[in-house]
Design a protein that fits this description.
This protein is α+β, with helices and mostly antiparallel strands and about 400 residues long. The protein has three domains: about 130 residues, no CATH class; about 60 residues, Muramoyl-pentapeptide Carboxypeptidase, domain 1 (Orthogonal Bundle); about 110 residues, Beta Barrel (L,D-transpeptidase catalytic domain-like), CATH 2.40.440.10. Strands 11-10-9-17-12 form a five-stranded mixed sheet. The protein has a four-stranded mixed sheet with strand order 3-4-5-6, sandwiched between helices. Strands 13-14-15-16 form a four-stranded mixed sheet. It is elongated and about 80 Å long.
């Protein structure tokens, strides 16, 4: 017989242990499964499922790793910093660099570009305006004479045309004038532009050509019509750019090849054909374009323009060389379409008893060949006379079968 336990005053009465467990389990079951207790054999399974669910819940509710919070915070700080800088900073003004001298060496100073102003034009204006008073106090100086003005500045597809007043190349030593051109060249070089050279003129008459980034040779000036200065090398460079001379012929000497190139240029442009640097020629050289062939086809072609006294050697539709020529007097050189059918490096003319070097025959007994006299008018008996040097060049260009078009 079991003895009853005496209750101590103030002690709370506890139910039997088995009933307490059963009551707890019953309350859990009442919340989830039809208020019916689990069978004894399902109790371990229920406990396992309960703990598994608890583990998944704990996994889903865990906070994100601390590294994620550490990465997000700097991003917010950076965004805030950028927004703050954007709010207080101002855009840096556009500037261009202008070339001057200090202690005999080139230096560059910045000039601001106003809104809507062309950067290249601002650079050239800054050049002719010269250094500021503060810059002069620091030893910065310009070789350009006081009072020189910029009259025109026109960018073309591959070059600039820059026109100054005559004082740009006014009385000065050759070294001083070379330094003036060096300043222009260095200033243009600092521009982010597609142009590769600049045609320099004095009031619209060609003076010379400068190539930014390339050292300009010592100025060797000549006095043209009405006192406008020019350099022979500048004229030759311009003729070479237009297709009338080869780079090897740019020598700085006004020789036979240059006079023949001038005749070809003058004939193509409709000027008086003198073979010298006239005032008209100086003006025309500034804005001229290379001769444009009539024939657009692949391969090599010869075009002979009798009225202009010019022969064009064309390859794949592009000009290879423009050459002065003299064709038959009284129209004895026939117009039409022909082909080179015979070539002789030294051909003898039986009817006229003369040698014809580098002869390329294209119709009958008519050939393109070298001849001592190539005047500025049609003078031959039908052949196409060519100057020495150019005759050999055309002989090697026009192979057997080359089309020849006579206009």
């Amino acid at each position: 017989m079991a003895l009853a336990r005496r209750r101590v005053p103030g002690e709370r009465r506890q139910p039997p242990s088995g009933r307490a467990v059963a009551g707890t389990r019953l309350r859990t079951a009442n919340e989830n499964a039809d208020h019916s207790p689990d069978p004894p054999h399902k109790r371990p399974l229920a406990v396992t499922v309960l703990f598994a669910l608890a583990g998944l819940l704990a996994l889903d509710l865990r906070p994100a790793p601390s590294s994620g919070r550490a990465e997000a915070a700097p991003a917010r700080v950076r965004d805030a910093a950028v927004s703050k800088d954007a709010a207080v900073s101002k855009p840096k003004p556009r500037t261009v660099e202008v070339a001057f001298f200090r202690n005999g060496r080139l230096v560059f100073v910045e000039r601001p570009v106003r809104k809507g102003e062309r950067a290249d034009l601002r650079a050239l204006k800054g050049l002719v305006q010269g250094p500021t008073r503060e810059e002069r106090a620091r030893g910065v100086e310009s070789a350009l004479p006081n009072g020189v003005r910029l009259l025109a500045f026109r960018p073309k597809r591959d070059h600039w045309h820059v026109s100054f007043t005559r004082s740009l190349l006014g009385p000065a030593t050759a070294q001083k004038q070379t330094l003036r051109l060096a300043q222009i060249s260095a200033t243009l070089r600092r521009l982010d532009a597609p142009q590769s050279y600049a045609v320099i003129s004095l009031r619209g008459r060609l003076a010379t050509v400068v190539t930014p980034g390339k050292r300009h040779p010592t100025w060797r000036g000549r006095t043209g019509e009405k006192g406008f200065a020019y350099s022979v090398r500048g004229v030759q460079t311009r003729l070479q750019q237009l297709g009338y001379l080869s780079p090897a012929q740019v020598t700085g000497a006004l020789d036979y090849g240059t006079s023949q190139a001038l005749l070809a240029f003058q004939g193509w442009e409709g000027l008086a054909r003198t073979g010298t640097v006239t005032g008209q020629t100086q003006v025309a050289l500034v804005g001229a374009a290379a001769p444009r062939p009539r024939v657009r086809r692949s391969g090599r072609v010869i075009e002979i323009h009798r009225g202009r006294g010019v022969l064009l050697a064309v390859e794949d539709g592009k000009l290879y060389r423009a050459v002065h020529t003299s064709t038959g007097a009284y129209g004895r050189t026939p117009a039409g379409s022909f082909r080179v059918y015979r070539k002789e490096t030294m051909s003898w003319s039986y009817p006229f008893g003369v040698w014809m070097p580098f002869a390329s025959y294209f119709v009958g007994g008519i050939a393109m060949h070298q001849y001592p006299s190539v005047p500025s008018y049609p003078a031959s008996h039908g052949c196409v006379r060519l100057p020495a040097g150019d005759a050999e060049r055309i002989y090697r260009f026009a192979v057997h079968g080359t089309p020849v078009y006579v206009y």
